[in-house]
Each structure stands twice: as C-alpha cells, then as structure tokens.
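Reply to dn_fold:

You asked what the input looked like. This is it:
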Amino acid sequence: MNITIKNIRLKSQQLSEQTFDTPKEVVSWMGAMQAQDFTMAKWAIAIRSKQCTEQGIEDAFNRGDFLRTHIMRPTWHFVSAEDIRWLLKLTGERIKGAWKYVKDLKVDEHELTKCYNLLERTLRDNNHQTKDEITKIFEQEGLGATERHIYLFTMLAEADGIICSGVLKEKKQTYALLDERAPQSKDIHKDEALAKLAQRYMQSHSPASLQDFVWWSGLTIKDCRHAFSLIDNELIKDHFGSTELYIHKDYKECASSDTNILHFLPAYDEYIISYKDRTNVLDLEHHPKAFNNYGIFQSIILYNGHGVGNWKKIKKAKGIDFDISFWDNKFKIDKELLALEGKKFQDYIKK
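and this is what came back:
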C-alpha cells in the first residue's frame, strides 16, 4: 500500500481529522454517500463528524437536511437537499436506463403518468408513506402492485424528481414529494453541474483516477473526462508508486497522518466502495472478506488507513459488544485502541 495515498484519503474523507459539526455538512462535503444500509450509512456520517450521535443524525434526516434516494449507479445514496436537483439532472436518465431487469414489466407512459399522479395525490401536504402503505394504495387503484412493480415505479419517480425520502415512521423509511422536502433551486448548466460534481468528488475522495470517478458517479466516461477538464486548474496528476492518480490541489502539501488510527468502518463505506481500484487500501487477497461479486460490502476494521479485519455489533442484555476478527492471525493491535473505538460507537448510539 502506498502510504501517501492512505494519508491523503484519510484526510480528504474526513477520517483522520473531522472538521464538520453537522450531518448536512458531511453529506454535502462527500457529494453523495452510498446508503442502502441505513444503519451503517448513519455511522458513516458519524465517523466523519466531530460529535454526531445516531439520534442527531436521524433528527437531521427527518428535518430534510439531507435525503436518501436513488441518485447514482443506481443505488441508494444520501445527498444534501440543496444538491439533489442538479445532481438528478445529471444522473436521472442513467438511473432509469440501468434497471434493465424490470423492463419485462413493459410499463407504458400512460400507466407511469397515472402512477406519478397517484403518488402526488397520496403524498401531498407532507403525508409521508411507507412502501407497504403505498403498495396498498396502488392495489386499491388497480395499478401494478407487485414488489417489482412498486420498486420500479418508486425508483422511476425518484429519478424523475417526483419523490424522495420522507421522515422515519416507527423506524421505517417513507417516501415524500421532492417539492416539499427540497427547496426549489435555479437551473444550472450541465457543464456547471459536471464541474461541481467532479470538484465534490476530488475534494472528498482524493487521490483518485478518472476510472474511479466514472465508477462512483455512474456517468459516461465522456462526461467524466469533460468534468475533470472543467476543474483542471484544481487537479494535480501524479504518480504514487506505479499508480497514476489525481489529487485536489488542497492536498498538495498533505502532512503525514498520525499512526495508530483505528476505525470501525461501516459496510458500504465511501472509503472502500467509491473507487474502482481498491488495492491501495485493501490487499487483493482480502477482498473477498470485505466485499463479494454480488455487491455486498462488509463492515471492516481500518488501521492506519488499511483494511485489516471485520467487526460486528453484538447486542447483549446490558448493552452491546463487538465480534472482532483479523484477517492475518499474526496481526497484533493495542487493545486500548479497540476499546476506544468501541466506546465511540457505544456513545454514538446511546446519546
């Protein structure tokens, strides 16, 4: 592993030094954060902030400071309410085109319009509804209401800017109208949106390659190459060992990170998932213990920016404990570091 890559990524990803106080600031800084595992995604915000608790993050989510929707690749992501509209204009058509496995449902424009109208009538005036509640309404109206139909209709409605996440209802996710959850913002030119997305990615994910940005954004390589060209004056291209990567100019003089930094990294964390090439922070032989070929990512232990094992929360009568396993049986680590990280997680969920 190249030490310089690790040092810069820990800093850019807000893992070695946290500079933000609120969940909204963290999500905005990251551009977007993968969030299909809602519980883990909340922890991903917490480890990048100064003092966020699980309740504080949920409160910010319920206020609509940041939203959860299909916005890239396509999968669930957290995105700032201020960013969702211009980002959807970049990615919406790519999201809709990616769901090939449901095209056999053959939903025509007339049926889709009826679905959108029904969603707008159902959810207006902040009447946020769970997926099960929406399914019952679709059944009553005689529209397609199988699990695959509902998934398709809601995903398309997200991509078209009709709906997004609503408030939690008894810990369950709900849908809401985007117009009621996110402020209307002025249209921006595609070039401005591409530049803004590239800038967000490079400030929060440096060092990275063009291919990494293509993977993360889900955009075409043509658009991604153009996006990098639009912020060319902010990027430095350099060799890190045998790897050629871009860094944002803010990290030109990045100091070495402290040693003995430990993180309980959540599943699907941006530190691992947002790069096409993960070998700089995760030994190839250990990839199967961190993720599989079906897109399932595990919670891992990060030591000085490098993946070294897995962790899992265990509920007990008097609180929680952790199941810890290191990939190398000879690997040794200070037990106090493990205890400190465990306490950080316990404080996060208790406050």
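The two ends are 37 Å apart (CA to CA).
Hope that clears it up.
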